[in-house]
Amino acid sequence: MRSYSVAVVGATGAVGWEMVKILAERNFPLKKLRLLATARSAGQEISFKDEKVKIEVIKPRIFADIDIALFSIGSTPSKEIAPRAVKEGAIVIDNSNAFRMDDHVPLVVPEVNREDIAEHQGIIANPNCSTIQMVVAIKPIYDEVGIKRIIVSTYQAVSGTGKKAIKELQQQVEHYNTGQEMEAVIYPHQIAFNVLPHIDVFTENGYTREEIKMFNETRKIMHDPELLVNATCARVPVFYGHSEAVTLETAREISLERVRELLHQAAGVKVVDDPVNLIYPLALLAEKDDDVLVGRLRKDLTHRLGINLWIVGNNLRKGAALNAVQIAEEVITNQLV
Ligand code: L14
């Protein structure tokens, strides 16, 4: 079997670190693994299987012998460095918001639109975490009866913002317990014991960019420019795992039994729905589960074509690192590199 040279760019970040772990867990066929980061973390070592791999600084020609580069360094650095990596001959799978809506860049969730990968011109974009888990869960319903409108409210974990935000929540809880003053640096308000209806930056129309991303990215991934996505995104004091309350308005009527059956058969989905026994998807369950967890299945009592779901996913894994590695696996199995 062929093996590949892979670089993880941003290896010391919360998502980059998951990427390295997932490459090891899934035994990705590696010829070589290079871990790259900005000057700040260069020189550090990360263990990979039984080896230690040094973090190197990104510099010209470094991508020349790389087949696939997994990027998780944020939009601004990605915009500059990803096109350079492509020129040097690598395929880039980018986790940032930089290229997602670019017409020449496939935006891919393998369970939903793996065939789009073939159109790549060097860069493939990894969607936003909240979008990924939602489309994995709704795709089987969409294929069966169509979906016209989605109303979604998210409850997003702090790890999406990165390691510093995880620290901030930990520290606020500690300070609360010891009666010290709580400091908010990463978020504009205290996140411990609070809910912030604010993810990413605000845009002129009053929506946050996270909400706009859910609207645009869902349409692009589903190839449906008419699909309506009404999103409200909130930050909750949870470390890992995004939760979503989703109401679907389908195009044709579907029974709850059929929805349940479709979700049972769907790749990457686990139905966790036994409310009588107090079993439903939990953020804590997603910490140890790579599937998207779906439960609280109900008919919308206010609309004949409405279905309610509660969807939970691990934002660092399926929402980011795992989806990126799955794209890389598609790239190699279809010999697109
Ligand atoms: O990938 O939770 O566009 O603060 C940006 C906001 C990832 C999550 C993205 C957060 C998101 C992040």
Descriptive notes:
- The protein has 337 residues and is α/β, with parallel strands linked by helices.
- The chain has 2 domains: 4-127 and 320-333, NAD(P)-binding Rossmann-like Domain (Rossmann fold, 3-Layer(aba) Sandwich), CATH 3.40.50.720; 131-315, Dihydrodipicolinate Reductase, domain 2.
- Helices cover 31% and strands 24% of the residues.
- The protein has 9 helices and 13 strands.
- The protein has helices at residues 14-25, 75-87, 110-113, 129-145, 163-177, 209-222, 256-265, 283-286, 317-333, and strands at 4-9, 30-37, 45-48, 51-57, 68-71, 91-94, 123-125, 147-156, 228-235, 242-250, 269-271, 292-299, 306-313.
- It has a 7-stranded mixed sheet, with helices on both faces. A 6-stranded mixed sheet has the order 9-8-10-13-12-11.
- Strand 6 (91-94), helix 3 and strand 7 (123-125) form a beta-alpha-beta unit.
- Helix 4 runs parallel beside helix 6 (209-222) and helix 4 packs across helix 9 (317-333).
- It is globular, with a radius of gyration of 20 Å.
- The two termini are 14 Å apart.
- The mean pLDDT is 97.
- The structure holds trans-cyclohexane-1,4-dicarboxylic acid (L14).
